[in-house]
Batch of 3 targets.
Target 1
Amino acid sequence: MIAFQDVTISFGEKTVLRELSFQAEFHEKIAILGGSGEGKTTILKLILGLLRPDRGRIIIDNQDITTMSEAELRKIRMNFSIVFQEGALFDSLNVYENVAFCLREHTSLKENEIEQEVRRLLKRVDIEDAIYLMPEELSGGMQRRVAIARSLAACEPKMILYDEPTTGLDPLTAENICSLINELSEGSPPDRKGFIAVTHKVTDAAKVAERFLFVKDGKIEFDGNLEEMIRTDNGTLKRFINELLILGDSHV
Ligand SMILES: Nc1ncnc2c1ncn2[C@@H]1O[C@H](COP(=O)(O)OP(=O)(O)OP(=O)(O)O)[C@@H](O)[C@H]1O
Ligand SMILES: [Mg+2]
């Protein structure tokens, strides 16, 4: 379980989150929507304890992480894997080495076991053929797949955190990544691995998430399912999801 309780964080003069609160279970499929600079990436960093709030509490698995030591936080981070914004692969390492890097960091596997595990992970994201290519030789969608495989190599997470998983991809490739996100969270709650995907791509969010949070001015302005979001009377959210509303109309 994740709980934000009145979380406030500022950078210099700028207050990014203001007494923001929400609760989520690890098996939930959540999209956090919001404009650029509204604090979406900041929320993910707070969950991982990479940032600490100025005020308020963040509870993960019944433990308050806001006062934890770095060693305790490392254990908390094992609950999650994160796919950073833009994939962020190591440019000088090939696909194999990018994924193996995390296994070398986090496990004591022997080289032949590492190779087996890298192949298994690449197969899982359907990109095994690219094993010896360099990041620059991959398309944006392939890079995103490798980034997802790499994040899964870090640990067997209870929840995956995606930062803008489809931003910058063409519609078909984005659709592909959405399918992969759904596959990795297959099954029924509470046994499945959930995710939090932060994104401003509402149509992609609608393809993967069951619950939607809309962040505006440092607060959660909306929290509900797709149907509720489409029927929202929040003017800003309505404009934000306009694309979705137009698509909805065309189906009628
Ligand atoms: N480490 C930092 N130091 C100073 N300012 C920061 C830092 N991290 C974030 N900010 C500021 O906090 C605000 C929120 O940043 P954040 O990256 O969380 O936004 P975002 O919603 O993820 O935006 P985007 O959609 O563009 O990725 C921005 O104004 C940003 O400049
Ligand atoms: Mg961001």
Target 2
Amino acid sequence: MDAIQMTIDGKQVTGKKGQTILEVALDNNIDIPYLCYHPRISKTGACRICMVRVNEAALKTSCTEPASNGMIIDTDDDEIRELRRSILGMLLAEGDHNCLYCESNGECELQRLCNRYEVPMPAGDMPTRQRAVDTVSSKGLRRNENRCILCGRCVKACGEIQMNSVWNFTGRGSSTALTSDMFAQLGDSSCVMCGACVQCCPTGALSFQTVLGRGQAWELKKETSVCIYCGVGCQIDFYTNKEGKLVKALGNADGPNEGHLCVKGRFGFDFVQSGKRLTKPLIKKNGAFEEASWDEALDLVASRLSDIKSKSGPDSIMAFSSAKCTNEENYLMQKFMRAVIGTNNVDHCARL
Ligand code: SF4
Ligand code: SF4
Ligand code: SF4
């Protein structure tokens, strides 16, 4: 590693060759605000909120400017604050931002920065964008273009993480707009509902269908777990509301999935709270299923397996295991079949 020594806000810090000023600052717990930057996508340099003063002279976007030895960086002064305030003011004025009705209220990065820099709401007669809101065409995603700040994170999340390129920009200047598959409705586009764009969106322009009406951001409790669907073992941050109901799944950046999920991990959690879910064993008696205790059910399975083994031999029994179980459970299943039943007839759904 080629180390870089530089000074940020009077503090001596160390970075790595190839890093930007912003990356060095973040690694050293120095707070520079940003909106278009995201650690999981390539550099953009669009929002210009991350502007810093380099070598006591020029202002540069810290998310794109390479860090170099001996640099002196100031992340905050009167001019920088005024610049950030005016950019945030323009973003607010261009869109239609009523946080009371927004799915991102309480976790929106634009809202947080407007609060931090004390940006006033634009005057009532300012022109605001009035575009169609698409909250129904996709089963998983909601879209409100009037809250979009054209940061481009969704474009890159879809193109670089999911490799799908659903999103893109059309138009120029004040007519610039985000479009899915060149003007298709989201539900009719090639979107595979991985949710990466929603997870990266800094505002309420994109949100999940599962969140609305089920609790606001600050009420949700986070628990990290492992996806139950396949052997990749993606780590997921599940969010539950005050009633204990699951409302949202976000990819955990520290897992093997590096924050990404597929449609199953992202949305396939409703069964957990389904009223139709089996919670007690059922035994078929006289052609109909009846509820039974676990002892009764396990005794029945053990006696039937013993009967079949003694009458027809161990190879008349097979076990089929599941990717939804843990490695340890799958290990126990094959051990049980080989050591207790005495057969190698063991298989797993991954070979389907
Ligand atoms: S996107 Fe952010 S600033 Fe805009 S309405 Fe939603 S919470 Fe408020
Ligand atoms: S959900 Fe995934 S596939 Fe669909 S637009 Fe977003 S990033 Fe692209
Ligand atoms: S939808 Fe969100 S992520 Fe995409 S450009 Fe707009 S604000 Fe940025």
Target 3
Amino acid sequence: MMRSYHSRLKAKTFCMIAFLVFVLGPLLLSAQTTKTVFVISMPKPSNHLYHVELNYRSAKKGALDFHMPVWTPGFYSLMDYAGAVSNFEVKGADNRLLKWKKTDRTTWRVNTATQNIKISYDVKAEDPFIANNNLTEDYGYIIPGALLLYTKQALPLPVTVKVKPYQKWPLSVATGLSELPGQANVFTAANFDELYDSPLLMGRLESLPVMMVKGIPHQFIGYNMGDLDRKQLTADLEKIIASGSNIIGEIPYKHYTFLAVGTPQGGSFGGIEHLNSASLIIGNKNLLAEKNRIHFYNFLAHEYFHAYNVKRIRPIELGPFDYAKENYTNLLWISEGFTVYYENIITRAAKLMTEQQVLDNFRQCITNYENKEGHLHQSASAASRAIWEMEGNPNNRDADALNKTISVYDKGCALALMLDLKIRHETRNQRSLDDLMKSLYRAYYKEKNRGFTESEFKKEAEQVAGTPLDELFLYANTTAAPDYSKYFAYAGLNIDTISRRAYGNNLGIVAGMNSNKIIAREVIWQSPAWKAGVQPGDQILSIDGNQVTSPGFPPLKDKKNGDQITMNIMRNGAEKKLMLTLNSWQTRSFEITPLPNPDKLQTLIYNSWMRN
Ligand SMILES: [Zn+2]
């Protein structure tokens, strides 16, 4: 931490210095240092307003710009957080109102003749989305970057936050921030990056028993957690944390907290990773039922492993952050895709997933982009930058975007898999992707305390593999077709990459039911429906004049390739008639099966890779 004002004392006589240091020193120094203290209250949750008091001491007098971030770490999308602010007011030390003006959408300029000012404002919080503030009669969820203003001067400096939960709630607040000893709900952060990466959850919450892993406490605290089997979740999550932290071998934080908000939608979830916490929205019905459990555990493993990959092992562009604009990187395929890969490895290492389930998930990663047109147009590094245009979520792409883009989650997972098998093959299974992650953690997080550049990542990877990796980086940086078979063969596996004709009389629509409407959820690339312009989200009304009443369309009788059918759809409130020409199309299954007669190295790699 800097104390740059020491230098002003140098010109004084020794006597004067002694006087200043011993008598006035602490006073002067403190008066000249920027200091930020927030007090957050919520006296009436039914009005969905957080009240913020900001006690700010400036290092000097004059105009000060206070900013609201335009995004929050982990969610790569511009947000209108400043738009939720109201009742902005500034007072000087004498309690007199001070003038301020908005200089742009996210900036409040305050003219200070005094160094100590008190700003107060309200923030509307009625969005249950995980990257925004929410306040209900039962719980409060705070994204600090959507609530607390910063100045450029204060960004690298320590900051204090006092939280006063609604008086009818329990006092405790769940957060990754550390509480000041002996001061309930007074938290400190070393700087605003730490503050903005530490959401807070309070209200009528429930805690699972503390999970101690390598002597470090891990908590799972939630609101409205529903019918979860608490005992099973605690036992399994402890295994996930243990196997996740084993990848790197040490735990870089003093405590970790999962902050969960339950929603009535069963089986759905969303999360954002943070420095030593994760925000989760979880469907609170049947989450541990067979069909949801693996998906849920992989999701927990994913958010947890981000505490390493992206929070500490990170591209150089991802921290310290610029909160005033998008923070682009070409390497999100590493930060997100490798985390998808590791969620499977971690859950498998915790023995919560079978080998077949892991292989099925890897196959899914590959088919997700290979069987869509976007893989011909966008590389993994281009998709990393494009996430800001996808509003942070590649799962939200519409039909047009699916034709032009890929998801870094899918392709990044496949790249991690190929890189892992390549390292294992080249080193006779002496090293693996884990060793690359460990060396990045040591060299960049621990020693240099910064992120890595693209060329530094490649250099580390080639050092671990002991061989050039140009081919893999070509797959990452271009749309060149990966030679999957070669990489899977390193583990004694075959992957079916042969294009086969999908059988005729198939329209190529995966449909679902929504409020008695039949909706196209997915339109398969090159299928008759895709060629006719059917888009995900279209409501299917009728086929050849027959009303469609179930997502499994009525069989098309007496039709052959080349025949035409009519389909009536509803899109944006307007009915449209489309002509579909029945046709077979090419598709690849990417089915993964064992190769006959694997050699010793292939068997060794497979078993070690699968954590058998
Ligand atoms: Zn992620």
